[in-house]
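Quick illustration, no need to memorize.
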Amino acid sequence: MQPSRPSLFSAVPAPFPAALGLAAGFQVFTAWDQSHWWRLKEDYLFGWLVPAFVAFVVYDRWPRIETELRSCAAAGSVRAAGPAAWGLRLLAGGMLAGGALMFLLGSFYRASAGTSQPGTLAITLGMVGLVLPLLFIAAPESPAPVPGRWRRDPRVRLTGLFLFPAAVWLISAPMVSAVESQVNLALLRRVVSVVAAVFDLLGLPIEQQGNVLVLPPIDGKPNQVGVEDACSGIRSLTACLFAGSFLAAVFVDRTWKKIALVAAALGLAFLTNLGRSLFLTAWAYTHGHEAIEGTVHDIAGFAVLGLTVAGLLVLLPLLNLRLATAEELTAAGPEAAGPPAGDSRGE
């Protein structure tokens, strides 16, 4: 019977486990505050998944977190030197001070005025500003550090592993009303204009009146479709952004690939949402505007998120595709290049 493996935290100085527990407490408070909007606004219904996905990402990354903790505490561990070291200290200190101020302001605002979008956003921003520098500052110290580039500093890599678990809460927090309205309005205008242009290009009579598309009457009854904010705005954007961020955090390794996948999620959200509006308008064009209410409307809405996730899953193998270079093939030996010509062993 093999002896049980000792816990990593038994050999790690107390500050980091304490900082990790404090960070979890800040996130629990943030989830409690945001849950009001998850219940109230369908646009942020996906927020109920955020705590579970954050826990999964931390669990999935735990072996890497252990590795970086050991690297921080090892003799000869790299530490950023010179201006980079001062820059990291100033960034961590500034984020910590700003995060504490925002978190306190949001908490006081909630205590005095109740739940509000500005208060929730301030609490969320404050939580992000507190969690990341706390984990950076609480990383184990090396008994014999050596100077090096900041990118090789294991404290930076350790903090980076918690970037998604901390920053994803910004997606599930409602934006301030003025910003949300402007985003909705901008997306709404573009979707309605594109739908009207497509029908006009196909030679189908249609008239645009603001966010209302006037279609030919059916059986003498007026027939028009109003493109609502939820059909073209923030709901698809935030849900698809969350899905893209989660997939990028779990399945993609390079930073530029993560950014590319999140950008693809935003683009796919707009395209699939545009396809939804085209479908609903075409359905109303043939069957009347009453036919797109209820089941047809809801199924088309869920299809937006489903098609976006499917598109992202198709992109994942392409982003993770890695072609071996000539140097790597040479280092791998003659076996990597396959059997020589005329040799039948490979057949």
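DSSP finds 13 helices and five strands in the chain.
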